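Q: I have 363 residues here and want to know how they pack in 3D. Can you give me a structure?
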Amino acid sequence: MTDDIKKLSMYLDQNALDKLRKIGTDNHFSALKDRYSFVYSNITLREIHKAGVNADDSEKIAEFIILLTKLEATFFQLPDISSNFDARPYECTDTPCNVYLKFLDEDLRYDEFIQPMEKIGLAVHNGIADYDKFGGIQISSMLALKDFLLDNLATLELENANCTDKNIKPQLEAYIDLCQQRMQLLELQLHDFQKGVRSMNENFKEANQDQSMSKAFRDQYCINVDNLKKIEGFNALNRIFVYLDEVKPESFPQLRELYKDIFDENKRIFNRIFIIYDFLNLIGYYPDESLNKENKFLRSNLDRSHAMLGCFCDIFVTHDQRFIKKMKVIYEHFNIATKIYDIKVLEDQTSFEVLYDLEANII
């Protein structure tokens, strides 16, 4: 992020931005942008949007967008990483207002299709009230996505029929052919998908009858959360696994083996960060609060994405102490040089507390 910029890149999550929104002045913003190059992501925008919706206050959203504008913040995001192992973020210099409007049109519109599947993780924390109803919503969302994609494919086919550009038409036809093949594959998979969803939710319902799956997991592996939280500093993740191996029943499989993808260097670091973040929540290592509540669970997923995107910045700023604890374990494990700061906004200045700095041995 800093190859062409002398100033250090700084990425703030929504709670850090909120401190600046509430107390910050133009003098604060001017001093900060002289020292740092600010960046934000679609995760930032999602948090900002959610904060405004929850408060039923569109002006609150506008205040955040104005703040990003005054900080001269640059939007960045990862390209599709499925086909690019060494994917790097790309930046957009459009105004935060225009980026937010594009986010509303291109990101939020897909929530109705994506979120029912994303919410599967709620079942681990017994956050599903009616598993049969939840399974029906998942199936309906997939069918709605199929219809949405078919509508868009029909639009493409109409554009192709009216296309007279000999340079564009072959590419358009090839893309349409690829889409048609993928839609055929989707159709073939729908039956098994519906059957799998119903079976999975039946299993979740049974597993959560007495207590949440996450609580049962910690009990069965004899995890003492108070002792677990004492593990901090250098090599924390490996020491956590050593502790878990020491306390587990002899007949139980080692968690290091169950979570071996964490240590597989052939796996993308983005995916491994996601796995570690969810794993730390599962075992009770400074878990995000109220993961059985839908809003809190989705917020936790956003924090997980922040942790991944923060790898590409010089400094990540947050005031969320539980989040910081998990980020420190993850970043130290991967030797990530991103510094983690807490923020304090006073009337006359903004100050930062360094909570993680690998180079300075602050872990």
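Q: Anything worth noting?
A: The mean pLDDT is 93. The longest strand covers residues 339-345.
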